[in-house]
Amino acid sequence: MPKPLQSKRLKAREGSSKDIEHEPEPKPELSSSTSITKPQRNVRRGLRGALQSLPEMPLDILIEVLCRSRPLDLLHIARTTKAFRNLLMARSSAYIWKESRMNVEGLPEPFPGMSEPVFASLCFEPICTLCFKSGIQNVIWEFRARLCNSCKSTRTKNPLALLVDVDTVDFVLPHMSAHLSTKRIYGETLVLDSEVTEIMGAWKRQVDVEARTKFLEEGKARVKELEAHAARCRLWFSHTKTERAEEIEAMKRRRYEEVSRRLKEMGYEEDVLWVDKQRFLTDSVRLKMLPAVRQMQPLTERGWQKIQQEVVCHVMTKIRPRRLKSEYMESLRQRFVLYRQAMATFARPYRNVFPSTRELARLPDFKAILDPSVNKQEPTIDIYQALEPKIPDIVANWKAEVKEKLDEYLKNAMDDLPPDISLDNLVFAQMFRCHNCHSVFQNLDYLIAIHECRRRFPTAGGYYSQDSMYDSTLDILGMCVWKPSRFSTSSPSALRVLEACGKDRLATVQELDQLNPRLTCKKIDCQSLGTETIYNWRDAVAHVMRRAGYGGPSCELEVISSEKVLKLGPLDQAVERENENTVTLQRVWYCSHCEEHNKPKDDIVSHLKDIHGIDMPSDADLFPDPDRTVLNSIVYVVQDSYKERVELLTSPVLKALETGRACV
């Protein structure tokens, strides 16, 4: 063997023997008078373990071992002793690093001018190249360096700011695009300060145009080659990170499977299977995201003993309650299908003036049928039909409750009312505006209690108390609790109409219907161009309520003269015909004998004839949905000056002229 290698082998042995410290001799035992005695621990220092005999190997075997190692292992070995450092950092040992690099699949060659150890450190060690800060995972391959955020901000510059006197030098600088400020939407081009100094020095040494042109061409070729090499390195690095992530995920998955197996053996199989099927659980609930479970280490018997209590506690406190509620809700959801059908059948004789399915579900009789914790058997239609004799009393009690709440709400809205006064026929207690859809309607036959927003806006107005799982599960029905506070009363608006009509605030509906006043609003914002809008008292109250609800200016109502009222007879007849046709064509009709609904009147009539054999249906056989047939009686009088200029009128007025609801 050549002499230099023998000397290196001897130096390696001598250096390793000096660097390795022997175990310290045990201290003499303490006398019996010593109050505290502790067992002595053997303290090991230096190179111990599986590779402790590595320095003593023959050189040929040692080199074979090193060639079969990975580059990161060589870096670690080179830092153990000076002898290994001298061996691995010698130029003659470059072949060892090359052989080691070949052990990493797909790893490209080092950049031109970069040694194998430096390239290995760049690829495998998460250390900032400039300040040696640890934990830097990303590599900037164009710079052939890892940079922490601090160095990226202080040791890089924008080439346009540094080389303003040279327009083309930035093309020969290795550069990258990065976000150094959160205020920037797009990244800016950056170069290393050291590269700038080197390139600027070389640029200044080029004295003539030909030399500078050649310098730029060579620099561009060098940068192009560097970018191509960086792309290969980036591809390998990305592939390596992906493989490592998959490997880590596989180890975590095997650990989770082992935890699941042990939980199933302990009797938690239903909980484990349920949580695996859920897609929309938070990470704090998922068993696989528990820190004790989401680890790479294989689960041993000793490790299971350490985490068993934590895992079981997680299952019992976070997974099982959710599983039980989910199963409870699914059972209740299936029961609600038949329940809705039965309630629709019960509601038809009452023309949909009926409590909501949510309100009925809270009654004891229905809860005893629906609640799976009370009734273990699946309900049938016969069970609901047995409750049909109780429906009239249920509806009567519901109407009484609605009236009581509504009267209290109205009395709070109007001050100084006589204590025993009945609000049923008072004008100010008739009209309401929904806070959700802003529709205005008269409360005829408890229309306020069956308004469609209890279905369209199920969260409006709050819910019942959710003290039990059954109460909280009623959200599935999609119905909100009826509350009068979801509506605005017509008290202020009705008082304006009564004042314009010369009536006091306690005027009744019968008095105004007998008087039949026709009103118009003189506010310029409320009038169409060249048109006077005429309201009856109900439409006038609705008009004022809408203006107030949208924050518009207060209205200026005025009763029109009796001469004008006489001219409105044909217009009122046209309104009646149009409203009748509108209701007939609207898809709001119900069959009183089956579930057919939301059809035009003619379709329901044909249905009654074909299905039920009723040739001449009466009002008892079909009915419109009262909540969706709110109409108006507004008419228009066009000024004489616009008789020849009808094209200037608004679309509603032009349509009213066609239907006969407007005159000139």
TrEMBL record:
Basic and acidic residues composition bias: residue spans: 12-28
Feature: compositional bias, Polar residues: 30-40
Chain intervals with Basic residues compositional bias: 1-11
InterPro entries xrefs: F-box-like_dom_sf, F-box_dom
Chain spans, region Disordered: 1-42
Location of the F-box domain: 51-100
SUPFAM superfamilies according to UniProt: F-box domain (SSF81383)
Domain of life: Eukaryota
Protein name, entry field: F-box domain-containing protein
Native source organism of the sequence: Cerrena zonata
